[in-house]
Amino acid sequence: MDKEKAMAFTSGCFRGEPAVCTNACPFHLDLRSFTEKMQKGRFSSAYRQLRSELIFPETVSLLCSAPCEGVCTRKFLDDSVRIHDLESACFELTKKKEPQVYRLPARAERIAVIGGGLSGLVCALRLAIRKYSVTVYEASGSWGGSLKDHPSWEKMEAEIRTQMSPEKIEFVFDHPVGSPDLPDADAVYVATGASGSTFGLLDGWDPGTLAAAAKGIFVGGKVTGCSDIEACLHGMKAAQQIESYLLSGNMPDHAKKEEAGFCGHYISTEGMEKCPAVLPSGGTYTKEEAAAEAARCLQCDCSACMDACEMLQKYRKDPLRISTEIYQDSVVVAGASMRTIGREVSSCNLCGLCERICPENADAGAAILYSRRDRVSMGIYPPAFHDHWLREMRFAMEDASLVMAGSSGETCEYVFFPGCQLGASDPRYVEKAYASLAEEADLSCGLILSCCGIPARWAGMEELENDIAERLREQLHALGNPKVICACTSCERSLREKLPETEIISLYSVLCGFPKEETPVKTDAAVFDPCASSLDASARQSVRVLAERSGIRVQELAWHGEKARCCGFGGHIQAANPELYEEITRNRISESDLPYVTYCANCRETFASRGKQAMHILDAVYGLDDGTRPPVPINMRRQNMLRLKKDIMEKYTDQTFVIPREAWEDMELQIPEELQKKMARTLISEDTVRKALYTAENGGVRFEKEGVFIASIKEGVVTVWIHYQKNGEGYELVKVYSHRMEIAGGQNG
Asked: CATH classification of 663-739, choosing from 2.40.10, 3.40.50, 3.30.2310, 2.60.40?
C-alpha cells in the first residue's frame, strides 16, 4: 500500500489539533482548557495554567492585544468569547498566587543574562526554576526595561517580584556590559532591549532558534526589533534552547521562525444557538459572570463526522486515525502479528457523508475503499462479507439481463437503466416507468436490465467493477450511445464516475416534466433521500414535486439533501457487522414517526423489513402501494427479476422467455416465522434451504439424530446448514445457520 496515498484521503482532518484561537495566540495558550476551568469555577487551577504557560501572566495579559478574540468561532453566531476579560477575572478571583516551588537538585552550569527587561527576566526565571545558576546583568538601577514606561508598570512589577520570589537569581544592577567583554558563563542570553548593544552578534543570528554564530550565545528580545509580546516569547525560547545546548553540547540547527496566526480550521456553527457575550457588571466579572462567559466557549474541536457516523462512533476513531491504521495494518509481516482492522474496514457504508460534512473534505470512506481494494489485491479480504450480493449481481447481469433498443430499431436516443434492485423489489416499478418513457412520452427509449457494478465496488473488487463498466459501455455503443435514464441514485453516481462520456439523467427529473393533475393531499410523509442522491439536487427536488402531485404532504428529515444518510444497506456491512447494521437502520427509522417516501429500492426494503411504513416514490406516482407492502424475501427477489424480464420481452419484443423452475421449488416445506426472520437477517434464502433439503432427500449426505435430519449445502463461499424433520407429506425446518467453513468431501451442492 502506498502510504502517501493512504494518508492523503484524510490529511485535512484537524480533529484533536489546537483550536483556532490557540493557533492565533502567540503563546499557543490552551484556551479550551482555560475556559473550561473558568466555567467550572476552578479559578486557581486556571491561574496556574496561565502562570505555567505565560511565566508572568498578568503582565502578558496587560500587553496582549488578544488576537484570539479576533478569530473566535463564536463571532459567526454572535460575539467572540471575551478571553481578555476572563483573564482579568481569573487574576481577581484567584486569592493565592504564590508560585509553586519545585524541589530539584541544583545544577552546576552558569548562565548569564544580559538585560533585565521582560525577555531577560522570563529567560532567567525559567532557567532558575530548573535550578541553573543565573546571573542577570542590568545597565540601569532596576529591572523592567521599557516596561517601566507602561501605565500599568506598578502592577507588572508587583507580579514580577511575586513570581521570582522563591528562586535564587543574582541581579547585578548598574552594570553595563561592554563589547566584547561578555560575562564568563556556560551560556549567555543577550537581551539588551530596543536601544541596547548587540555586540555584533546579529551577524549570522538565527531568528528561528535565537542562536548566535558564537557557541553558547543566544540573542533575543527587543534588541532584535520585536514587540513586547515577542520579547516574552524570545525569553521562553532562549531558556529552552540554552538548556538543550547545555545538555547536548551542540548548538541548535537552523529552524524556521514560528509565528502565531490563523490556522483556517473553523468548526461548523450550523444549528448552534446564539448566546451574546456576558458583559461585566463592574470593573471585572463576578464568579457567576465569569462562569457564564466561559461557558460560551464552543470548545472548538471538529467532531462533525464523528457525530454523524455510527461507524466512527463505534470504533471511536477520527478519519486521520482510520487512515493511519489502514496503512499500518497493510504492512503487517506475515507470521509476526495479526491484522486487526479487517472487520472495521468492512463496516463502512461508503456513503460519503463524512467527506460532505467535513470542512476540510477529509474522506474516511475513500480511505476504507482504498483499503478494501488493497486487501482484495493481496488476497486477504474475507469473501463471505460480500459473497451473497456478488452472486445476486451476477444473476442480474446474466440470468435476468436484457438489452433492447425498444420500438425504434437497433439504436435509441435514450435507454432506461433501472438497476438490478428496482425490479427485484417490484417488477411493476420498472414496467410502468418504462411504459411512461416509451409510450406516454413517446421517447426513442431502449431498456437495459443489468447491474451497474456497485456490489463489486463495495467489495473492493476494482478490476471486476471496471470490467462491468466496460461491458455496459459496449452495450451502450451497440445501442447508438444513448442518454441513460437512471432510476437508482447509486447507479447514477456509479455510471457518472465510470462512464464520464455518457449523459446520465434521473428518471424522476424526466417524470417531473410530464403534465399531471395534482391529487388532493391524502397523507403526510417524510422524504428519505438515499445517500447517493447527495450529488443530484435536481433528482431530490423532482421527487418532492412528484410526491406533492401524488397527494403526499412532504416533510423533511433533519438530515436531507446534500447531507443525506445511508439506510444501513450501503457498503454491504450486514454480514460483516450485523450489530452496527441494525443500529444504523434503527437510527434512520427513528428520525421520524411519519411514513417514509424514498426513491431507492434498497432503502424501501430495509425499512419495510424493520416494520417501518415506507413506499417508493413510484408507488405514489403510479398508485401501487401506500407503504404497507411487506419486504420482499431474498428468493423472491430473483423471481421478480426473472418475471420482469419475461413480461418486458413478451410486451416489447417478439421473443419469449420461460422462467426456469427447479424440482425443489415444489417440495412442501414449513418454515416457522422466527426462522424466516433469522434467514432474512443472515441472508439465507428459502431457495437455498429447499435446495439443501431436496439434495439431502435425493441421495445426498445427511445425518439423523432423534428424528431430526441435518444437511448442508455450499452457496458461494458460505456453507448453509439445515436441521429438518418430516411432517406428514412434507417437511418442517427446525434450525438453520451458516458459516464460512468448508467441509471437504462431506456436504451437498
From this structure: 3.30.2310
